[in-house]
Design a protein that fits this description.
single chain; 254 residues; six-stranded mixed β-sheet; nine-stranded mixed β-sheet; mainly beta
Length: 254
């Protein structure tokens, strides 16, 4: 997915005055192309909370998806995209799922396609507890979430900010054969005063063997903040994608 265009911000598609096509008045609002309904593969219950997704359109355009309720993932659509969407669905501690949606093209707008994803727990995944986690109010605006990854000896440090809806942030992490999946997401602890974004710092112990790190954001955009791998001996994690400044890696010697 590196180098392909990501739709990072929600925008209004301006079509100008309503057009008349085949006797129908077309409206100017932007309509979503795909909605993903997420169910637990064992219980069949709605299971979208904590799930993120990335939709790759047949044109190569990427769209982030996040949970709007217990059932549905909706996308950061900046334009209507009829055609085939291949959607990767992920949650820490669960096996990833891939679903395909074919959104049709209507006279004026894309025809919304709803597809189902079923997620199952990864039997080999083990919960990874942070050595420390600190969060506090951040910027009052709505900039996109971001993070920087640093390595200090055998300690992995993740610093950044993410969004909540009047709650504190929390960090959820699971280690499996595919690596370490860390996600920052809204917690259940409500706040008296709301801030649009909150700063955080999380630290984990980095094993001596090579570690693949996937860092995701569970609310709003972008959903993927970092993906890369490395070892404590190398002093850094190298990754092609990062939500923070720089080249996706950081090495800070002790």
């Amino acid at each position: 997915m590196t180098g392909r265009r990501r739709l990072a911000f929600r925008a209004l598609l301006v079509l100008g005055p309503p057009a008349v096509l085949s006797g129908c008045a077309c409206t100017s609002e932007l309509r979503p192309s795909v909605v993903v309904e997420v169910h637990d593969a064992v219980t069949g219950m709605p299971a979208a909370r904590g799930v993120t997704g990335i939709s790759e359109h047949e044109s190569g355009v990427l769209t982030d998806l996040y949970a709007i309720d217990d059932l549905r993932l909706e996308g950061d659509w900046s334009r209507e995209l009829p055609g085939r969407h291949t959607i990767l669905v992920r949650k820490p501690g669960y096996l990833p799922d891939v679903v395909v949606a074919d959104a049709g093209a209507g006279i004026c707008h894309v025809n919304l396609e709803t597809v189902e994803a079923r997620i199952a727990r990864d039997a080999g995944a083990v919960s990874e507890y942070a050595v420390s986690f600190i969060e506090e109010p951040g910027d009052s605006d709505w900039p996109p979430a971001s993070a920087e990854v640093h390595v200090h000896g055998d300690t992995l440090e993740i610093v950044g900010f993410a969004h909540t809806e009047c709650t504190e942030l929390r960090v959820v992490a699971f280690r499996s054969v595919t690596g370490l999946h860390v996600q920052v997401e809204p917690s259940d602890i409500t706040l008296d005063s709301c801030h649009n974004s909150r700063q955080f710092e999380a630290r984990f112990t980095l094993p001596s063997e090579s570690t693949r790190l996937l860092l995701t954001n569970g609310f709003l955009y972008p959903v993927e903040l970092f993906e890369g791998s490395g070892t404590a001996e190398q002093g850094k994690l190298n990754g092609p994608r990062s939500g923070g400044p720089g080249d996706g890696s950081s090495a800070l010697p002790e």
